[in-house]
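Hi W.,

Here's what went into the run:
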Amino acid sequence: MFLLPGLAGVMLFYLLPFLEVVRRSFLQSGNSAFVGIDNYRAVWENGAFVLAVRNTFLYMAVGVPLLMGSSLLLSLLLRNLRLRRRLVSAMLLPMAVPAAVMVLTLQILIDRQGVINGVLTKAAEQIMVIPAFEAIDYLNTEWALVVVVCSFLWKNTGYMVILWLAGLAALPKEVEEAAQVDGANRWQNWHYIIRPGLSGSFFTIGMLSVLQIFKSYREVWMVAGSYPQEHIYFLQHLLQNWYLKLEFDRMAALTVIMSLVLLVVCLCLQKRLEQREENF
Amino acid sequence: MQTESKKKLWRGFALFMVAMLIMTYVSRMVYVSRMPRVKWSNPMSASIRNKITAEGTVEAVNAQAVIGMDGLLVETVCVAAGDRMEAGTVLYEVNREDLLAQLSQLEAQEQAWQNQEQAKRREAATNTTRAQEDYDMDVIELDRRIAEETKKLEELMEDLDTHMFRIPEEDASDEIWIAWADERLRFDREIAEKKRMIEDIQLEKEKILRQADRELEDARRAQSAAESGLELGASGISQVRERQERIALLKELSGNEGKVRAKSAGEILEVMMQSGMRMGADAVLRYADDGGSRIFCTVITQEQKPLVHTGDMVQLTFPGSAEEVSETIDSIVQENGGYTVKIRLEPGVAAGRFEGVMELNATSEIYDFVVPVKALRNDGGNAIYVLEEKEGILGTELCVRSMTVRLLDKNEEYAAIADELLTGDIKVVTECDRELENGMAVKE
Amino acid sequence: MMRKGRVLLYIMMCAMCAALWGCGGKEEEIPMGRYADREVKLPPGTFEYMHPCPDGSYYLYGLDTELTYVDVQGESKGKDRNWENNANIHVKYVVGVSDEGASVFAYTPRFWNDEELEALWIAGDTRYLYYYVDEKGQKQALEPHGEGYEKATNLNTFAFSPEGELYAASDTAVYRVNVENGEVESLFATQEQVKSIVFSGDVMLAADAGKAYFYDRAEGKLLDGNSTLDEFLSSHSAGGLVMAVSDRNAHVKIMEDNGAGDAEKAGAPDGEETGASGTNAGDDSKNAQALYMACRTGLYRYIWGGSVIEQIADGQMTALGDTQRSPSALQVLDNGEFRVMFSGNYMVEMYYDETLPARPSKELTVYSLEENGWIRYAGQLFQKEHPDVLVRYETGMDGDNAVSKEDALKNLNTRLLAGEAPDVIVMDHMDIEQYAGKGVLRELDGILQPYLDEGILYRNIVEGMRMTDKEKIYSVPMMVYLPLWLGEEMYLEGEQSLEDIVAGMEQARQKHPEGAILYTPYPKDVLLQTIPVCLPAWTKEDGSLDVEKLTAYYRAVSRMWEIDSAGFDAAGREAWQKNNMEWYAPTDMDMADIGSNYQYSAQQNFGETWLQLGFLMTPQVGMTGIHVSKANMAADWQQKELDDVVTYGAYAGQADNVYWARTIVGLCEQGKEPKLAEEYMNLLLSDPMMRKWWLDKPRNHSGLTIRKDSLGDILDINNIEFGQTMGFKDPTGVNYPDFWPTEEEKQWLYQMMEDADCCYRPGTMLEECATEVGVRVLEGGLTPEEGAREVERKMAIEMEE
Amino acid sequence: MGSRATVPAWAVQAYGKWQKRRTAWLATGICVAVASLICAPLLMIPGGSMMDGAEMRQILSPILGEGKGFAVWHLIPVYPTIGHFYRLLIESPAFYHLFWNTVGMTAAILLGQLAVGLPSAWAFAAFRFRGRDFLFGLYVVLMLLPFQVMLLPQYIVLQKLHLYNHQTAVILPAVFSTFPVFIMYRGFTQIETEVLEAARLDGAGELQIFFHIGLPLGKMGIQAAMVLSFLEYWNLVEQPMAFLEEQAAWPLSLYLPQITISQAGVAFAVAVMVLIPALFVFALGQDALEEGIAYIGVKA
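Here's what came out:
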């Protein structure tokens, strides 16, 4: 009853379109002929797909834990600070910056002749007395992924801190206090009280991190274009390029694969979490 | 503390939003006030009254010449081609010494000739008188003889009469009769003879008189010839005449101090002498007489051509004179890249003018789309701005769009344009209070 | 609870689906019924106006045509009440006719040369003369006079009331005119010239371009205005607006502007579809007192006192919308039909046809990534030629706000995939092979065949567009550019290959160790100038990248750049760039146009010798541009020791006979109006359209038309249309003819066109990639080999996809 | 235990306090450092917004491929100018138009999400029905689906609903987005099921429970969701670009979606103007968040 209005809208604007995607994944893009699983096969056998999946996984494998870890750490630190609000606001700011401006800022910083290289060169010359610091072409070398991850962290840390803080705030303070009174140390406190209390949030924030990874694509694209350095060629690039090439059929197939994977992961995670919660 | 800062925040936020709202209006106002204001009109269907102005030249149809004073030395030329001359304008001066020398020489010749002529005339007169005298004497002589014979005749007649009265009696003898008769016969013979004599004399008189008369006449003729100089022959006479005329001319000239003056008004077209030159008998100066007629010539461009037709009424003015005439175009001829228009002017018109300006008020055909010429711009082509509605960020706005058009015709005020897309209800921007650019938002 | 939830869920889903398809179903159905028109055959003569009589008969009259009566049966009874065609009359301006056939009109005397008239004309006094012909044909001069009437006033509009009274309007007032003695009585002042007058009972409604005036003839006073009508008039009067009432004798209360009941009554049909309310028009006209108005945008009905004016016929779909004509009279017939007279001897009857769809069923959509004036123009022209078709021209990337090309393409693809393909796509900067391969584009062989058979188009250019894998032509460029270089004869002459140019540059560098040779400070420019002639050679038969060729290319251009850079130090180049920065910086789409760059080439050249690579774009301006350029160079370079005469020629890169295709048009397979799209294509390929080639100047770069005769026309100096448009023929215009291409040059150009068979289409992935990497190669970041490999790597991903 | 006994109680206390304070200081230090690191690049924005075009061009010329060396950035412009702000705030009514569009759209979306997402989240949290897990998983997956894939089918749906090219085309899908449901759900799960059971046993209606227990307890989740949603939609680019053809309906994020160097100054100014309301929202949102937490604390 509470769900219905929302569900109706979700169906209309998300599920129905998604079903359309599923349908199209079995059709040929030009003439809508039924081609069975040809599209899936085409995706599976695609070299670019392999590359993109690898990159995306790498990105996620690096980005998500880093983001979650760093933001959790920060939120734990922030939790009882008086400056909390200001600091969190400050950390949130990158999210509010228009993408275009953010991209411009990034470009200024990380260009081969950009500010960072400039600073590093100068630092190398003056402080470390290393005569020739080779300027790094961040976007056109292996550094690209580092750059992408860094900017991802930069932009999303505040976001995640908010979520962690919300989760932390929901923890019953008395338990913690009681534990402290009982002389539990920091680690014990974390291990026995905070961590279990956050396990729900853990799932949420993990998912949202993945979501943010997907969303960070636009900036990557704006900085590096449709065909970036091969380490930052993600599934989104593939999708986008397929879209531009009218290969909606493959795109749909890829989406279905992706969502299936996601659904499975998601359900498993949820199951586990719930089991744990129940156990706890 | 907490609530207070919160209140402050809310207040700040509200303040910011209000400021944004106010600024919204401010920027709108600024935007609108900076928007060019335009006026527009629909293109009209109209004809264009085109004022075609062309400068041209005035040429005289026939030029006149001033004949040089043959053999005279030009001292100074006082005019140049293109000069205006009035009657009495000094055209040139001749060398007066030369002139006087020539004059005196001529006069001497004339004098000599006169003297000779007089002698001839006197002789002829004497001859005539003599012939007359001969004639008169012959007449007198013959008349006397005639009178003599006539007297004798009358005497004979009287004798006869008397004889007749002495007619014998009837019975007179035959001898008497015969004697009488014989007598009478003698008388008759004598009378007849006398009459014949008189006739002879009269014939002779006639003959003599005729001859005398002829002689007299000859003498007279000779005299008159002498007096009139007939005996010089045609060339001789003209020579004399010429000389006399020349003398008169030279005299007049010297009286004018050697200045040759124009006889009528006109303009000098060509001067063919220079000082120090001895003139021949040909023209030294050509001029257009004011009384003659002229032709106005001008060249119009290809664009003007369609508006100008033979027979069109044009206004002609001539710089420097107040004259203004209406004439019709006589001919339009295509000549190297342009069209030469010729207009023959009435005699006396445009006297003394070399340049003229033709003005033609040509009314074109009716064009479908005529806009004020202000609406026309040139940006590498002829274009107009048309008013359109544009969907922009601020919703529907009026904006101007540049439209390239063909220019068919224009005058100072209006321009006729053409383009496949033109329609009668297109809004053509005619006025704006600042420079427009394609796509610029404007207000009416 | 759970079960209930699930059932509900299913119900919801079903409902959603139903709603969705229901929605779709509704969308399909176009409401039927709208007003259509049929032309009325008019009696011989040239008629401009019509006077409707209440019984359905009407009078026709024109400026110089006799009054003709057409009775209810539609039979013309001409000339029974005629007026004298006075030889002394030059133009009859305005005429009014009464129901009985009395008429009044204004004229100007014929004698144009009459000095007096001329003087009047010059003085702006174009006063009309008037006369009146009564119903029996008795003519008498009418000399308006009276208080409040100035002699100089012109009466432009006349109307007889049902009783036969004559009303007239000048541009400042409305008068009542006594036809017997010409006495004029000023009734009320108006803001503008009243254009139409109608009578409804005692009330006379006079309308100018922005206001409606109601005058009570019985009371003799001006009544309150009506804001609804005023608003309508001010927005619809352009191009002529005519009015008629359904019943002239009914005295209605017009003024009740705020009558709530009326407003409601009139408001109801407003919300409905146009067609639906149109159905009622006939019935309503019998019982409701209404004012009808016809103008360009359509036929409107206003129920007296209401607050809405409803459109009952759309101008776009009837003869009313014809922009060449304007309505001059409207007659309301008893059967709900209307007669509309147009100036220009044209009359239609508008009738309600239930079988016609209410909206224009035909819509031709034209799409291009960037605004293209030529295509826009063609759309407008097409719409003018097909009044029933609405041409929508859509551009993906708007000039003001930079929607990126990818985003624009994404939106286009969305539409294509959703089955809402435009009918015509301008394929510039799009991947034609991709779209053709996906079956988006229609093959054009059939359409183009007649053109090719008759030799109208350059076959080689059209054939250059043949797709390799499908062996069909899917798109055709309307214009092309040809590669051209401009430089000193000593180093280069005639046709050149890229190697020759490099060699020429070496030579020049040896002779002049200092100064720039190439004509740009930007490495990107060098690429832009050379990639087009090389790019087509980089793809192997199987579609893969020919790395060797690419490496060779990078070697050649980096050598060029090296040679050029040897002439001055980095600081010099930087200074040059700084100089240029303000108003010239290369962008993706910018390209070196030899013809139009000449203005600043002279000022900006940095060294003693120079070379310019570019493309010939606008034929005559381009060619003349070269001449002007040559002249400028020669003049400007004298002090800089120009070695030899400046000359120019074609150049080839790794590919020969390259042409740069632009305004590439393709038709969509899925387009909704294939026939119209075909016609549109034919319009594009027609000579009149091609002659407008100069409209195609997104950045002032139009090309050489692929239609042979049009190209000839364009290069014809006497082409009056071009001359008039470009201002050549205008005395104030620039005097180009001095630099016009010579006959020899024209032939050379035609020959180049004949030879060009290798198509370069900008905007491919490969090009973007090669340019991006190329800049790095030229700047020394990469070696040519590395660069080529980098491109290969990126392209490999693309190929894989 | 014994060792502890040797230390006087006050010392232990003092040490504990000191340790606490030290930790606090340390934590503050770290957080401030991180926050400033995060904000550092943003400091370029105000500087950029007041930087003269020529200066910017000059210092960035290496990036533009027009010079050697490295780009630098002046945090405080050498030639500061308010020209960009003047151009933006005084001369560009379009900016305001889009600004209000954004404000309106964001507000509508947030309100809609509250109205729709809140009950959904509650439903997921408070009721256990069949398929709940699957449905929830679906929600998550739908949330994660990249927009590119959804673009086409959403377009078709919107087209069918006659919403295309209308602001609702952006608002409606956003309102029904599963993202806030997901976050708010997390907030509600903190509520112990026993509390609900107890309330139900007490005969409280579902609505009552929702309003009296759910809402107050889930408040921070709601707040977080709102702040995050705000962030999300305040700078929405892709949806409006795809669904809004008419420029008049665009949000501010499309004002300058791509920046050329000549526009950079104005773009920075736009960024500043965009950041200001965002700051307010953060502060106010957090305020509310605090309050909510405090409220919960009191209740609990």
